[in-house]
User: Fold these one by one.
Assistant:
Number 1:
Amino acid sequence: DTAVSQTPKYLVTQMGNDKSIKCEQNLGHDTMYWYKQDSKKFLKIMFSYNNKELIINETVPNRFSPKSPDKAHLNLHINSLELGDSAVYFCASSQDGGSGEQYFGPGTRLTVT
Amino acid sequence: AQSVAQPEDQVNVAEGNPLTVKCTYSVSGNPYLFWYVQYPNRGLQFLLKYITGDNLVKGSYGFEAEFNKSQTSFHLKKPSALVSDSALYFCAVHTGSARQLTFGSGTQLTVLP
């Protein structure tokens, strides 16, 4: 069984569109994350979220918003897509926020044309 | 603020030889240190972590890492490299007071047959 899953795996869309990426974890973890990996493979945290607190990386544009319908899901909504949003987006989850290791999804490759 | 440095973008080693991937960190407070591996077109996989206790930590696939507080380092090691170890390796740090993991820039390990 897949621990952390994301859909879709690939997403190609035009500038200005709005899109969503879904993430689900079946590990019972209390914290979920979204990361962006750029073309140079640099990994940047975008959000971390548990049932008490949303932490937003201050460098993330407000066009990006996480939405969590329940503890096992953290979806990423992106409005008014820009060329610079093209990247691979990873969802992850962990128990115990800080000391717990994170489990990553397979990634969603977003291409904005 | 917390930060991680991986001084080598690329490490090449012959199969069967020992390998080392370097990582240094900067935090205020006690660090939680992690190593992750990323294979092509895959999400990151947890290898090992140091939270407290013995400075030598053993992890998956025969990897180990040594925590050195005086040198603020957490180098990843393996006694005998395999071609299948070729991948991108990330060091990461977290402190109890911080809410998010900070990743290094990654080191591409290539094991030559």
Number 2:
Amino acid sequence: ELKVEQNPLFLSMQEGKNYTIYCNYSTTSDRLYWYRQDPGKSLESLFVLLSNGAVKQEGRLMASLDTKARLSTLHITAAVHDLSATYFCAPMNDKIIFGKGTRLHILP
Amino acid sequence: GAVVSQHPSRVICKSGTSVKIECRSLDFQATTMFWYRQFPKKSLMLMATSNEGSKATYEQGVEKDKFLINHASLTLSTLTVTSAHPEDSSFYICSVIIADTGELFFGEGSRLTVL
């Protein structure tokens, strides 16, 4: 059974700083998704990583995937307040299972 | 634009009644849709995988007789919460995978409150 461990679960940081969210999973996964969720809203797709070594970047966010280590990271560069949200990773084998989420609070 | 449309976005019902939530794929056909539920400040939990033209596959611990899923067409899946109770109050979200790109898109979600 696929298990997902995301850390940290809560992160408060200053604007302008860099930080990384980690996503470990327990079994072989075909692909991995990253999502953003704002309070009271549904999920917004950020990245889908389809192969080992995949790296994708959009603005201040960059995601990577190491299938051998069963690890994905979401790196935030020079954080801004608008990035405050909850971020979820979700690897997929025969189903898509979500991590517990990282609540990111960026202080202006 | 939106890829998946979900309706209603909010519903309040009395205990014991049934509520139907619709999930539509826009401009493409979806043979598979996923239903999740999310409690406040918690993660998403997969409830079931909805397959067009066949029975849904439910996750362990999800009552198939309580959460009825129908995927009668390639663009529509419905989730019916039968005999709803206050503990069924939650945020229900559907999703579909775009086969070409592997992207997984979510509907806007349906917030159910059972009084």
